[in-house]
Amino acid sequence: MKRLWKATLLILITLGFSGMMGCQSEPTPPGETFIVSFVDENGTTLKEITCVSGEACEIDPPTLSQTREECSSCYFTRWSVFPEDYASLNQDTIIRPIYTLDNRVITIGERSVVFYSFFIMTGIIIALFLGIREIKRHGLKSDDLIDGFLWIVPVAILGSRLWYVVFEWDQFAGGGFFPTLLRIIGFESGTIDFSRFGLSGLAIHGAFVTAVICAYFYTKKRKIDIFIILDIVAVGFIIAQAFGRWGNFFNQEAHGYVVGGMTENTPNIPIIKEQYLYLRNTLHLPEFIVNNMYIKAGLHGLSVEPVTGFYHPTFFYESTLNLLGFALMLFLRRIKKIYIGDLFALYLIWYGAVRIFIETMRTDPLVFEFFGLTLKSAIVTSSLMILGGLLLALLLRLKRKGKTYGSIPGAFDFSHKSKSQDKEAANS
After folding, report:
1. pLDDT tens per residue, range 300-347
2. pLDDT at position 428
3. What mean pLDDT do residues 14-32 have?
4. Would you say residue 376 has pLDDT above 70?
5. Which of 3, 151, 156, 350 could form a disulfide with 325 if both were Cys (CB 3.0 to 4.6 A apart)?
């Protein structure tokens, strides 16, 4: 058995080094021919071009359908080799088309489950699982959380929808009361057409505000310390948001500005390949993310995507920062001197700062007019969150002395006091 494990480990190490070192075929000697093949997703050769090494070769890509047969929303972006690199080819090369990713998890009949819904629900389920484990540590029953979860989550989703509707009213209004109402609840056409049903516009701030209000009334009715629940909600919210943002990725929405920015409606980095290399080689982002950030001009309106090119994956930046905040919260709630309620205060400050940073890059913000000023809803709300988090942290230290995680099983004490010092302090 040990020999088998050693052999397996040796094979894995060998494969790993092979993958890191890479395998390349030898370049074709000058004067000899090589073939450049354009191949579709099914492996069918669309076009072959015979070139002579060391001589100029005219490479003209074949005409390709702009959408995939099995995915009408997946459009062709580019070939796997940039046109700028055609002249440097000197060996047999296969060039394949790159399409945007399919945003569907599964399709049954005419209905599909999309990644947007899938990631939101995955985040919610993980938040519930973590919450159940944590609430038991506080000496409460899991039902105390589950009962609240069953009605707070649906109301929070409704709140996120209404928040979005308020700031994007023009998308929903029109045709009278009932068509407007139908669009609000998810019927995009304004008629009862289930083939075009879905909540394609949600705002996390609306869900957050609604959830906090619901938590206040729920804990008051159950006679539970609200800060215990808010700390649990904070940890759940930030991990759910980290997952939920990946739904935006598959929809190619909630992204940042075009790589390099723009000056007077002209990209500062006009060459598509250079935009790609910035994301791949400078930011070291995975290729599947970079490829799906190639977005056509006007996909969500010319104000959102003014040009065709690679856009900043702000969903990824936000998701990563949320995961860091989540890890920090898991660590802090194990420290004895952390006050119960500090995690919620940290969430307000952390996510508020993250969202302000992200909003400086977003091209599709929710805005409103205030005394002639056009303000971004997310920045205003996030600023209030940061202020609220700072005030709450101060309040916890002034009004709730003694209520820390030190009384919760599993907390760590990082002080340098010896056990004898602890006993003397307890007896004094």
Report:
1. 888 889 999 999 999 999 999 999 999 999 999 999 889 999 999 999
2. 45
3. 62
4. yes
5. 350
H or E segment to which residue 395 belongs: helix 377-399
In this predicted structure, which of 19-23, 74-78, 169-173, 176-180 has the lowest mean pLDDT?
19-23
Question: Residue 253: what are its φ and ψ, rounded to 5°?
Answer: -135, 175
| Nearest alpha carbon to residue 358 among 350, 369, 346, 370 | 350
The Cα–Cα gap between 235 and 334 comes to 13
Q: What is d(CA 424, CA 419) in angstroms, rounded to the nearest whole number?
A: 9
Q: Rounded CA gap, 12 and 175, in Å?
A: 63
pTM of the predicted protein model: 0.84
Task: Sort strands 367-370 and 294-295 into parallel, antiparallel or unpaired.
Answer: unpaired
Contact yes or no for 100/72 (Cβ under 8 A) = no
356 and 227 co-located in one domain: yes
**In the listed set 99, 130, 152, which residue is the last one of a domain according to the structure?**
99
Full domain range(s) for residue 91: 25-99
Are 53 and 32 in contact by the 8 Å Cβ rule? The answer is yes
Provide the β-strand partners of residue 52: 33
Cβ distance 219 to 225 under 8 Å? Answer: yes
Please say if the pLDDT value at position 128 is more than 50.
yes
In a domain, 105, yes or no: no
Residue 278 within a domain: no
Distance CA 237, CA 241 (A): 6
For the chain, how many structural domains are there in total?
2
| List of residues 6+ apart from 357 with CB closer than 8 A | 317, 321
Q: Residue 5: inside a domain, yes or no?
A: no
CB atoms within 10 A of CB 339: 21
- Burial label, 215 (beta-carbon count in 10 A; 0-12, 13-18, 19+): buried
pLDDT single digits (tens) 129-147: 999 999 999 999 999 999 9
pLDDT over threshold 50, residue 190: yes
